């Protein structure tokens, strides 16, 4: 069975909800899903996954959250050549660098050889109806890419 590994960082619960929406959609499409908060998992667990997904928020002026920094650094040490990845997350359009952490993870995955399976999804604060549709489409596109 195809395994999707979702790792998330969430301060307010918004990004955890985003990760849960993606996970539920993947499960409904017959994908086995493992979802973990970023401090509870090692980056090298992506090696065993068919789909590698990160959901993160952006802190302040475009910064990666402190709690995901070690995961990010460890990710850059991996070789995920040929693995399918997707990134989604939340931010606040009040800041100039809206959802920059999503872009940072996308660049990291690309650097270590992974293949982008879907356009990243950026959510302003909490997921609303249109965001949920975008996240579900994101998950479906990842599944199509793996098949």
From TrEMBL:
Cofactor(s) the record lists: FMN
Q: Which keywords belong to this entry?
A: Coiled coil, Electron transport, Flavoprotein, FMN, Transport
Q: Which Pfam families match?
A: Flavodoxin_1
Superkingdom to which the source organism belongs: Bacteria
Domain (Flavodoxin-like) ranges: 4-143
**Coiled-coil residue windows:** 115-145
Matches recorded under SUPFAM superfamilies: Flavoproteins
Quick check: keyword Coiled coil in the entry? yes
- PROSITE patterns per record: FLAVODOXIN, FLAVODOXIN_LIKE
Q: Which family does it belong to?
A: Belongs to the flavodoxin family.
What this chain does, per the entry, is described as:
Low-potential electron donor to a number of redox enzymes.
What PANTHER family has UniProt attached to this entry?
Answer: FLAVODOXIN 1 (PTHR42809:SF1), FLAVODOXIN 2 (PTHR42809)
Task: Specify the protein name.
Answer: Flavodoxin
Instruction: Recall the taxonomic lineage recorded for the source organism.
Output: Bacteria, Bacillati, Bacillota, Bacilli, Lactobacillales
């Amino acid at each position: 069975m195809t395994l999707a590994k979702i790792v998330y960082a969430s301060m307010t619960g918004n990004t955890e909800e985003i990760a849960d929406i993606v996970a539920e959609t993947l499960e409904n499409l017959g994908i086995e899903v493992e979802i973990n908060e970023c401090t509870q998992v090692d980056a090298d667990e992506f090696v065993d996954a068919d789909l590698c997904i990160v959901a993160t928020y952006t802190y302040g002026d475009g910064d990666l959250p402190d709690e995901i920094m070690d995961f990010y650094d460890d990710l850059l040490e991996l070789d995920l050549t040929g693995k399918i990845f997707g990134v989604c997350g939340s931010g606040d359009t009040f800041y100039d660098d809206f959802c920059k952490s999503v872009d940072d993870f996308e660049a990291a995955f690309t650097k270590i050889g992974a293949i982008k399976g879907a356009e990243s999804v950026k959510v302003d604060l909490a997921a609303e109806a249109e965001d949920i549709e975008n996240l579900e489409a994101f998950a479906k596109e990842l599944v199509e890419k793996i098949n």
